[in-house]
Input
Amino acid sequence: MAEVLHREFVYIWYYFTIQLRQIFPYWVLGMVIGSLVSVFAKERIHHMFRSLGERKLGVLGIIAASGLGIASPLCMYGTIPIAASFSKNGMKDDWLAAFMMSSILLNPQLIIYSAALGMTALMIRILSSFVCGIGAGMLVRVFYRERGFFNFKGFEEPKSRDTDPNILLRFFKNLGRNIKATGIYFLAGIVLSALFQRYVPAETMTVLFGGNEAFGVLMAATVGVPLYACGGGTIPLLKAWLYDGMSMGSAAAFMITGPATKITNLGAVKIVLGMRRFLLYLAFTVLFAFAGGMIVNILI
Output
């Protein structure tokens, strides 16, 4: 029995160390870039978004808002108070919807993490998040032009935690919070990917997530709901699944539904939407993920 356990540990450790060597540099770089953006560029990004409200850009404002949402380093609980202040200053709900949707799906730190999946997956993640934000903004513009979509009552813009007068200490304090927030999920993701590689046959992954079948995309979109806890933690899993036969379209669907239905994000979104619009948000997310995944599989 002891020999069996030791052998299994050796196998799992082997897969774990391979994944760690492959992904660890991206995790470190992602945290550094994320902290740099948060400390030195966050205010500029949000100022750029505020300045959009002073221009009559129409639909172009939705496109710009989606791009700025991706550039914003804040989590959804940090984004909502910021969005509340934007709304208070007259920002349109369709622009806010685009900004918040793309901000949920992607940020500078997660872009660096996703580079570990390869350039194709990275470009698909950026483009799908950008288009998803635009889609959310357009739907709000069409169906909620004459009535409000968000309810930001009670929210105030949060005070920045990056206030240390020493610029280096300010950066390292942010980096420390970053490590604390993502480290455990990163390691857990590598452990899970090692277990998948050891005990789940590659043929099973191909059947579930491979090919151009709608079933694989739907399965990936569904699995993204319970498995996604942290962006960095899912990168090892996705890397292992893609290696074992997951289609790029299934990966795209997972990368949409995962962050969009992350439990902390859902809690934050529910607060400002109410039940009916919250259900619309969920329906839009799943449908977009499925359609996007199918399109990716057709094109690639």
Summary: The two ends are 47 Å apart (CA to CA). The chain has one domain: 15-155+184-299. The mean pLDDT is 84.
